[in-house]
Here is the input.
Amino acid sequence: MSETPVTDVASSSPQPGGPPSRARRAAIWLRSTHPVMLTALAFVASIVVGGILIVITDTPTRKAARYFFSAPGDTFSKAWHAVSQAYVTLFEGAIFDPHTAFKGTFWQALNPLSETLLNATPLILGGLAVGLAFRAGLFNIGAQGQLIFGAIFAGYVGFAWHLPVVVHVIVALIAGVVGGGLWGGLSGWLKARTGAHEVITTIMLNYVAVYLLGYLLTENGFKRSGSNQAISRIVDSNARLPKLFPEPLRVHTGLIIALLAAAGVAWLLNRSKLGFQLRAVGANQFAARTAGMDVGRNYVVSMVLSGALAGLAGCSQILGTNTAITQDIDAGIGFTAITVALLGRAQPWPTVLAGILYGAFQAGGVTMQSRTGTPIDLVNVLQSIIVLFIAAPALVGAIFRLRGTASTSGQQLAKGWNG
Amino acid sequence: MSAVQTEELVEVHEVVDVAASKKARLISGSVLVVVGLLCLLGFGLGSHAGYEARFQLSQPGARIRVPALVLPARITSIVLGVIVVLLGLWRITRGGSRRAMHWVVGASIVAVVVSFLCWSLTGTRGTSLDLLGLLQQTIFLAVPLILGALAGVLCERSGVINVAIEGQMLAGAFAGALIGTVAHNAGAGILAALIAGGLIGALLAVFAIRYLVNQVVLGVVINVLVLGLTGYVYDALMARDQNTYNTPPGLHAISIPGLSDIPILGPLLFQQNAIVYAMYVLIIAIDLALFRSRWGLRTRAVGEHPKAADTVGIKVRRTRFVNVIVGGLVAGLGGASLTIGSALPFGKGMTNGKGFIALAAVIFGRWSPRGAVGAALLFGFADALQNVLSFIGTPVAIPSQFLAMLPYLATILAVAGLVGRVRAPAADGEPYVGR
Here is the structure.
């Protein structure tokens, strides 16, 4: 119980007798906790845990396990079958599917990748939202509520107003950004004015948004008339985000918006005065205040920006992927976005990659569920285990006998309710 | 209450805090005045004159019948509104200590609720409200919230933020249903629920205390993990064969001889199942232990100032470990109340935000067991009211979603300092590197 954090052995101990050979350096790198290495190992660990889960719940495997001692090979082959089937179909749904690739058009072959990017789009935007707030020292657990508010605003403009082509979609996007920004900004304002912790207010505002949406979906003018279900009116075709490729591929311009947003966030954080202030407040609010920065204003600004990005994720959901708002418009993206931001270490371009990885999981999960009957919830398990391992580099180090623990990403964010 | 008892530990802070600042008094007093006026104008003048509000206080078959409570709706609402306004004015002009403020807030909440109920009954003449039924429903809905909130208090008082109450409860509900069904035994199910909740608690403890992972992040990730795990096994196993895996045995209600015949309180509190009685014991035990025992003093010391606690020889990390795991057990029991306690099968994601309402209750109740239980009861009441209001037809239709929002809005108002100041244990959420 008395370990002190291990120092970075790999980079700080010079080798006796000249510089190490290339092979030795590669070996050191492989056994150090470089972020890429760490992510890869976390990925492996999650696949193993997921495999165990599949085996335990697989009916043929359990049947074979009843006569395990008379024919142990049976159990192993059944288990292998179940696990490999699940992961192979996961891959086929996310990246390349040999069953359908050669039957349809060229575009057909790209369908898995398109689905991956389609699922990645809101995750990237949500991940950027959470990550931006992280960098400013704020925990935005409210991406769900902000996404819902963005979707409500964008959706309302989308189906209630009738504007010309191009203009309509832009106005709807702006509305979504405003909606998300307002909902996020509310938490920032509460923190700046009253000191209310943003984790608490964002969690609570998530549920307020959920119930507000539930209420709106029963109201005439918002609800689709003549439908018994809680579903909104249909967004005008003018307000929809155009598709990027021909017919079967569903990926839409929201992806371009997400990439532009990543570039924007990268520029903001690394190149702008505002971004410097945000990071300064995030690193040490007292020092920032001493340096003359308005900490309260920074809280509001970063939560507005964060909420706006989550609002864009809502736009991607309602103007791109779907055409009407339902109660589950969020589809768990708000919380998955937190894991995406963690995996991306709150940096814009790694967040994009993390979003694509989790988008691939999501897309593959659908195919896996429909082809092998392996429930898509497996994806949630894999995603959360990856993040658990990423957040605890010392644990991965211990499991894989790595040297040193270079990054302690979680620690710098550790703050209490009173922080 | 709790504030006074923590004094022995953080004396300086309390001395500063006892007399609320003028600004704080002005804000909280004005809020009360506004709420009182809303009550007076909205519920008082908004209800039809001459209507009576009828509250039934006993069930048809009860041994001792209690006559229904009949109040003149309009006058009651107005009087209660005036009382709340006066309390607000008193707060602004005379102030009062934190302790007095607890009573003021409590009394105001009761006044507002009663005046609301009076108003709601004036929609159609002759409707009566089954108050006893409403309160029974409140207890039923509050049981998981109370247990979840107690789990939160246990964790957070020792300095570990518990956002994973939702996950712990879900794990408990799941394990309770699965094992209870397979073993054909409610007791085994409850035991499994405790273990499952405790395991998730242990996971939280290991990552938060041993690996210093940020506790909010951790809570969120654990929730996703448990949602995924239980959802996976549910779809892969339980949903395919509900009879074999997902028909948990229920618990019988046990009437306590003597006590269960007390009018109103008897049917409300003493005709419940074993989980509810366990909950009573836990409420009293945790409240007593936290403020009257060596363990409680250590827990609070570790949560407020771990370094000081370490200096006098308290093992900070071990204390936190124990508390987080015990918290997990309690939350697991809360989960069991959803399946075994109600004889309901497990459903995917069936906690559905109850863990977060429990977290809200912890915060709204200022991290004290009594406060958290009170808040959980209030939130349970808001939940129960949703069902009732849809039957009685209020003068102005109230969408159920707005009542469902109330716990969350109330918590936001509380942390924003509109009704007194909410302060978490000083070291809540800060990992301790040391022993």
